[in-house]
Amino acid sequence: MNFSLSEDHLFLRDAANTFLSKEVDLAPLLVPGATIEQAGYRQMWDKLTELGWPGIIIPEDHGGLGMSAVDLAMIVSECGRFLAPSPLFGTLAGTWAILAAGSETQKQQWLPGVAAGDYQLSLAIAGADGDCERTNTSVQVSARGDDYRLNGNCHYVVDAADADKLVVAALYNGARRFFLVDNAPAAVTITQLDWRDITRQVCAVQLNDARARLLDGNSSDVWPWIRDRLYLVLAAESAGGLHAVLDDTVAYAKDRIAFGRPIGAYQAIKHSLADMLAEAEFASVAVLYAAWALSSSDPAAPLAAAMAQSYASDAYRSATARSIQIFGAIGFTWEMKNHLYFKRARANAELLGSPQCQREQIVKILETQHK
Amino acid sequence: MDFNLPGEDDPRRIEVRTWLAEPSNRGYKALAEHGYAVPHWPRPWGLGADPELQLIIDDEIARACIRAPHHVNPVPINNCGQSLLKYGTDAQRERFLKPALACEEIWCMLFSEPSAGSDVGALRTTARREGDHYVIRGQKMWTSLAEKAQIGVLVARTDSSAPKHAGLSQFLVDMNSPGITVTPIVDMTGEQSEYNEVFFDDVIVPADRLLGSEGDGWKLSMLQLQTERVALSRPGAIWGSGPSARELMEGLIASGRIRDPLVRDEAARLYVEGEILRLLALRSLSDRMNARNSGPEGAVRKMVAAPHGQRVLDLAKRSQGVHGMVKDRNVLPMSKGERGPYSNWDHAFWWSPAVTLGVGTQEVLKNVVAERLLALPRDPDPTRKTPWSSLHAQPAPEQ
User: Fold this and answer.
1) Is residue A289 part of a domain?
2) Which residue of chain A has the CA closest to B283?
3) Is residue A254 domain-shared with residue A165, that is, in the same domain?
4) Residue A315 contacts B where some CB pair is shorter than 8 Å
5) pLDDT tens for residues B107-145?
6) Do A239 and A171 fall into the same domain?
7) B376–A3 CB contact, under 8 Å
8) Any CB–CB contact under 8 A between B113 and chain A?
9) In chain B, N or C terminus with fewer CB closer than 10 Å?
10) Could you give the number of structural domains in chain A?
């Protein structure tokens, strides 16, 4: 038993923190009408590539860094802390899809290029109603021998516009299968959604007879395996963001004077911040446990991942709303960062299903264990 | 990093289990002599055990269906005993510790008073030095175990010319001294009284029962209230005892009540919070094992655990519907095993309003978290620096 982070983990976290604090500048987003491009979404990717982050989770024999889920959590929670706009999420999602569903040959074919930063990935999983658990039925697959063609629409696809290749989930022969599609101009039309969280790129994708390669994996476990890892990513982001919001709000409460005292001297404010501290600590512990469980293939990993994602989502949403309240009216303006965190929190709590959905998954697991 | 707990085949676990299987070892005297009453203390009292070994010993004592020594005699084992190691005299250690650890002499803590609860520094009980003894006068309240305790750890005011915290001292008092009256407080559960009022009517306490020096009372009391045993692997709803969120979930599944969609989501939410509480307890334990500062977790954990426990008990009770109003221990199916006091859902529920009151109210705890951990401004206490005697007219001492 050793729940403490190792020196290596702490070093990685601090290095990510130092790097991102220098490189991320949200100021351009605090101007009305700003878009994600203005915050250096594309430039950030080049810098992350220099650090090798596109290959964090890619095994070494496929050209990546082969790091663990705990290492990943260190990096991603710092990305969440700074709201680093970058296509990391999409590439992680696409990579896991290839790792889970690709044959050895397919992995060898595509993953070294991802690790080297030659191309970005994206994963199209959600249906028109945003549900990721049922297969998106708005994509049709036609096959003539090995020539697969996809037609239809993919929804809420993160980091699609800049991706070179999309992994698309679609119903084929009665099962959810994963296809790799090149982001080619005529065959793939991508529209960026007018997404409220301008620190993340989310798109609608239209496939027009797009040539696709079928990933060989044909197990119903593929999506849950990917999903548990994506839960970890979102939960780690949320936990990191929650700590940033806590730090900012505490600093403001010490600084802002009302009725002759810093507002943080009033119990209505200080008690709210004490609760926020507790939730930030709880979210971090849940994330670490999930990261450990995933990296050590512990049987409790699906439970741990769902716990982390449901807890961190709720806590992040609640903290970002309270942060605006504690800042007062200035926190409601576009020029402050509060709304960026508020919107990221709401997005993180919806992209892979609501916290209620994850809690339903938790109860199902426990019911199965009870039998 | 490794979240695995010491396994069933851990050699230390097997050693403890084997030792406990011997019938002659099952008494509290044997446990104390073997160091199992206070494994975390240094030898000869304990084993100087690391937190992992403490966890194993706690687990195995519970598994052997022995009520844990720290439940039988919590005051010396959890809170006050260690003060004697550091601040007591040789004679005090010799006289008091052995019978306390063997659970032969039960202790109680005489801190709170009718007008000094969360603000315990405002206590009014006085200890007046007269030759080779002190004379104690005043009233204590909310004292657990006073009805059976042989020894009381008393905080009283020895110097009323000093500000409120500075004028306090601690004493080890014989609870059967003449002039002590113990009266049970009937709490809202209406069941067996947990707490007492204790009246001191010019009680004589020999001067060698002073713990530390005069004026150490506040410092010692704070240390004793903050001493926390690492025994929270199962976060029960009432100060770590009683049923947990895991047991709530098991009970709701076993009874079929989990099928109600509202119960289902709420139970899952509590389950998640309960598991994180458990992980946090283990992480602070692990941090201590790695000689790393365990961060804000202790105070924060307590702040979350108390209302969490209330919500766990509340959902268990609501899941019964109207029948929950009938006095009946049979609330939810529950696995067997020693879980300390408050071991049935019904009693625990009616007890639960106390959880955010005892050992400092929830509001005071939130102040502590905000002020100590977030460095937010302290709440003002206009009486903090003023000599006690100029704040309170003292009754004329009786001659």
Assistant:
1) yes
2) A3
3) no
4) no
5) 999 999 999 998 999 999 999 999 999 999 999 999 999
6) no
7) no
8) no
9) C
10) 3
* Domain interval for residue A152: 121-214
User: Which of A2, A3, A248 best tests the B interface by mutation, with the highest count of B CBs <10 A?
Assistant: A3
> Using the beta-carbon criterion (under 8 Å), do A3 and B3 form an inter-chain contact?
yes
For testing contact with chain A, the best of B248, B283, B315 (most A CBs within 10 A): B283
Report pLDDT digits (tens) over A168-181: 999 999 999 999 99
pTM score of the predicted model: 0.93
Are A192 and A240 within one domain?
Answer: no
Three-state SS annotation for chain A: CECCCCHHHHHHHHHHHHHHHHHCCCHHHHCCCCCHHHHCHHHHHHHHHHHCHHHCCCCHHHCCCCCCHHHHHHHHHHHHHHCCCCCHHHHHHHHHHHHHHCCHHHHHHHHHHHHCCCCCEEEECECCCCCCCCCCCCEEEEEECCEEEEEEEEEEEECCCCCCEEEEEEEECCEEEEEEEECCCCCEEEEECCCCCCCCCEEEEEEEEEEEEECCCCCCCHHHHHHHHHHHHHHHHHHHHHHHHHHHHHHHHHHCEECCEEHHHCHHHHHHHHHHHHHHHHHHHHHHHHHHHHHCCCCCHHHHHHHHHHHHHHHHHHHHHHHHHHHHHHHHCCCCCHHHHHHHHHHHCCCCCCHHHHHHHHHHHHHHHHC
ipTM associated with this complex: 0.96
Query: Of A2, A282, A298, which has the smallest distance from its Cβ to B276's Cβ?
Result: A282
The distance of B70 to chain A (nearest Cα, Å) reads 24
Contact A274 B370 (CB under 8 A): yes
Residue A205 and residue A228 in one domain: no
Domains by residue range for chain B, with CATH: 11-71 (no CATH), 82-225 (2.40.110.10), 232-360 (1.20.140.10)
